[in-house]
């Protein structure tokens, strides 16, 4: 008999599929593709990195505004899956469309990327909310970590295929250009994502919900206002969201802009792709290890470990000069990237009432998304001001320090979940 239930496995398999978007579009191939397009159009390296940062800030702001509202509506019976399906299909469609946009139109590339990112991050709002429907409080840290681990493992397959095609094209082993090879990787991402979304769509259902009563939109806004007032009454919940706001800002910024940063340092495309591939492979077992250790030492203590590693990452990034330095940096990120995200999700899920999971995860995501506006803007502004990307990355260190201080003030959740 499997250790994990059919619903737990189906939920985790969505990470297996959607994480291909994260590595290929968000982190690896698309940023390089975009940087090449911008460079060909005469945009400087510093400015193209800054424009990417501003773009990330724009789409995260849009989602931050929509997240709690949509989450509140999704808490009604039968609505969570509808929202999840819509955003998933939106992300898949515009990921595929990236393959047909003219290479010399870097602005249109960014617009299409923005809509694809809205779909990807929007679907994750509801995917995260489904964790309360597929497992118990006792198993949340393990199931959440399994999702991230499968995401890292699953994403390496389409990523490896994409790397091989791109490397063969760049070395003229196959008769296609590097641009065409990158476009093929976008199609591979969309296909992989849609195929492994099927178990989630088919087998996972909303178990905790609020019954519909009158006008859903009006009632949702009333509940949203009430929740915002109540959330401040839960000291543990509010402190955790503040801590999360700061430390996840740094995590997300490093993930989203790592490839652009490496490019600015002069690291060639082939080296970047190989480094990112190995990072995914290394991150998979560490996500599981974080989940196992959380069961022994608590999620909070393992979050401390993850944040401390990121403080080291920011410090080391300031002195980054060679490919070997970037390798070391990437491996440090790999040890804690999945763990810190997985344990943040499960820790928060234990603090909230289950029937309002999407509404509370809407706030969880608004704190995360607003943080993701501040980080890229900070990096973009500092990079343009100094002309050096390493100053921008180093500036993120203060966010992790504030995060760990606030997290230290959060009491542990009780067996009943919500803490006053």
UniProtKB/TrEMBL annotation:
<dbReference type="GO" id="GO:0022857">
    <property type="term" value="F:transmembrane transporter activity"/>
</dbReference>
<feature type="domain" description="Major facilitator superfamily (MFS) profile">
    <location>
        <begin position="236"/>
        <end position="420"/>
    </location>
</feature>
<dbReference type="InterPro" id="IPR050495">
    <property type="entry name" value="ATG22/LtaA_families"/>
</dbReference>
<dbReference type="InterPro" id="IPR036259">
    <property type="entry name" value="MFS_trans_sf"/>
</dbReference>
<feature type="transmembrane region" description="Helical">
    <location>
        <begin position="181"/>
        <end position="201"/>
    </location>
</feature>
<dbReference type="Pfam" id="PF11700">
    <property type="entry name" value="ATG22"/>
</dbReference>
<feature type="transmembrane region" description="Helical">
    <location>
        <begin position="271"/>
        <end position="290"/>
    </location>
</feature>
<keyword id="KW-0472">Membrane</keyword>
<dbReference type="GO" id="GO:0005886">
    <property type="term" value="C:plasma membrane"/>
</dbReference>
<keyword id="KW-0813">Transport</keyword>
<dbReference type="InterPro" id="IPR024671">
    <property type="entry name" value="Atg22-like"/>
</dbReference>
<feature type="transmembrane region" description="Helical">
    <location>
        <begin position="54"/>
        <end position="71"/>
    </location>
</feature>
<feature type="transmembrane region" description="Helical">
    <location>
        <begin position="83"/>
        <end position="101"/>
    </location>
</feature>
<feature type="transmembrane region" description="Helical">
    <location>
        <begin position="236"/>
        <end position="259"/>
    </location>
</feature>
<dbReference type="InterPro" id="IPR020846">
    <property type="entry name" value="MFS_dom"/>
</dbReference>
<protein>
    <submittedName>
        <fullName>MFS transporter</fullName>
    </submittedName>
</protein>
<feature type="transmembrane region" description="Helical">
    <location>
        <begin position="389"/>
        <end position="407"/>
    </location>
</feature>
<feature type="transmembrane region" description="Helical">
    <location>
        <begin position="360"/>
        <end position="383"/>
    </location>
</feature>
<keyword id="KW-0812">Transmembrane</keyword>
<feature type="transmembrane region" description="Helical">
    <location>
        <begin position="302"/>
        <end position="320"/>
    </location>
</feature>
<feature type="transmembrane region" description="Helical">
    <location>
        <begin position="107"/>
        <end position="127"/>
    </location>
</feature>
<feature type="transmembrane region" description="Helical">
    <location>
        <begin position="148"/>
        <end position="169"/>
    </location>
</feature>
<feature type="transmembrane region" description="Helical">
    <location>
        <begin position="12"/>
        <end position="34"/>
    </location>
</feature>
<keyword id="KW-1133">Transmembrane helix</keyword>
